[in-house]
Amino acid sequence: MPYEWTPERPHDTPHWRLSLWPYRSLLRKDFVMFIGATAALVALPLLTLLGQPVLWGLLPFFLLMIAGVWYALHVSYRRGEVLEELTVDEAHAYLTRHNPKGDVQEWDANRYWVTVHLHPKGGPVENYLTLRGGDREVEIGAFLDAEERLALYDELSRALRSGT
Q1: For an engineered disulfide with 109, which of 76, 134, 140, 142 has Cβ 3.0 to 4.6 Å away?
Q2: Mind giving me the DSSP string for 81-126?
């Protein structure tokens, strides 16, 4: 699951943190291998053209294709650099969202008034998950898939009820 519960105990008070991030199927370390394998597979037919002038006509298009794949994956990584952190202590709940462009969105509420809401239909995504507290309702984990949001709803509801 692309989220992690971290129990913390500063100054002997119950306190926990939930960190959420988008799932990555292609890790950064595998990025170079993927680009290399793609370049090798696409260049394979070009081997038949070695020593012929038509190779120089096709080579710019080959390089443009490799650059396009690299750019598309790079943009995908940048858009996926989202981190949400929900920190709960005995009196307050704080939600911080670090967006890809560097801006930070924050929400806080009295811990006892915070409730978790699951909207199976009617939200922007299936099993839309929100936190309501104070005068605002904020989404949490919109980048997770429907099953992950459903599991997170159960875990988050239990954690907020129990206070640990």
Answers
A1: 134
A2: --EEEEEE-SSEEEEEEE-TTS-EEEEEEEGGG-EEEEESSSSSST
- How many domains, the chain? 2
How far CA 153 is from CA of 19, 47, 98, 99, in Å, comes to: 14, 54, 21, 22
β 3-8/15-20 pair status: antiparallel
CA 116 from chain centre, in angstroms, equals 20
Per residue in 119-144, pLDDT (tens digit) is: 988 778 888 999 999 889 999 998 89
Kindly state whether residues 41 and 113 are assigned to the same domain.
no
Residues 70 and 100 occupy one common structural domain:
no
Cross-strand partners of 17: 6, 87
Same domain, 102 and 60: no
User: Do 92 and 155 fall within a single domain?
Assistant: yes
